[in-house]
Amino acid sequence: MAQAPDPAAPPEDQTDPLVLVPESGDTGQPPALGRRATGELVHRLDADDAFPVEWTKLADHRYLIAADWPAGHRFFAPLPGGVQDPLLVTETMRQTAMMLAHAEYGVPADHHFVMWDMSYALATAGFGLADASGRIDVLVECSEVQMRARSLAGMRVRLTFERGGRLLATSTGSLSATSARAYRRLRGDKMPDAAAPAPLLDGIPAQRVGRRDPRDVVLAPSEEGPGWRLRLDTANPTLFARANDHVPGMVLLEAARQAAVALAPDGRFVPASLAIAFHRYAELNEPCLVLARRETSREGDVSVHVEGVQSGEPVFTATLGDSPQAVR
Questions:
Q1: Which of 178, 205, 230 is the last residue of a domain?
Q2: Closest residue by Cα to residue 91 from 297, 235, 293, 248
């Protein structure tokens, strides 16, 4: 997640406002969609970790997706108070973008994806399981679509999440795709790291970062002063669903969330908004330092700024907030 196979990152989002999700009609049933999602398309072979279910094309570069959000999950577990895990928004966006890239934009199965940036904002302060589980309707607009030899090279996506006509969240992100051959040239001698296990560090206490299972902790005590070391458990079935030659972006997202929770005075922080940018690949066998600072506005809104640093260079930067807001 980061170094570009293309020389320039995609430009800023310039999409028009989204249309509303179509009504289900007089039957009271959700609309039947055209094509079924598969584990191969969403890069999740474990059905419990695959959230898009089916989709249909509404118009050029516009799609309606049906997703299934669990009321309980081994990793995306409900937060205290029956709150749905907001990171389901980013994971559903990631899976949806790759699915459409393969099925609608001709990306071969052996190509590699780079996510450049991701952001989301909850539209409701509650985000409880009663509203944010089960079938979720996701309207997707793809923009800045770049094609190379009939295959997608890059695009930006904007998603609107609704359930029963109620707006839950919005999100945006950009990704690019590169061939296996170009990826091998790009990564060079880093490719063998996919077979070499990363050293497993002792994590900080799970409850300190809002986790129940110590195996889900991605932060370890730092030996270099403030912050934490990134902890990599390559046996984690959700964070490391397949062999990889770099740290998956999902791990970096979780590191940002756990850092924000660790700084909360009461140990509770619900990321109602999040924006993250990936600057370069995070290597598996090099120490990565995670730094964070917490700020509170005059109105009482909390924001947490998180940075991952490896070999003196930023790997990712993220800002998390505790108040719902509109993604622009």
A1: 178
A2: 248
- On whether the pTM is more than 0.70, the answer is yes
C-beta separation of 121 from 326 below 8 A: yes
Q: Are residues 169 and 231 in the same domain?
A: no
pLDDT tens digits for range 156-168:
999 999 999 999 9
Q: Say which residues have a Cβ less than 8 Å from residue 164's Cβ, sequence separation at least 6.
A: 131
Q: What is the pLDDT of residues 30-75, one digit of tens each?
A: 555 789 999 999 999 999 999 999 999 999 999 999 999 999 999 9
And the tokens for 42?
């969403």
Question: What are the CA-CA distances from residue 35 to residues 55, 62, 239 (Å)?
Answer: 5, 14, 27
Q: Which domain holds residue 121?
A: 35-178
Amino acid at 133: S
100's tokens? 């459409």
Amino acid at 246: H
Q: Is residue 173 part of a domain?
A: yes
CA distance 159 to 137: 10
Kindly report the length of the chain: 328
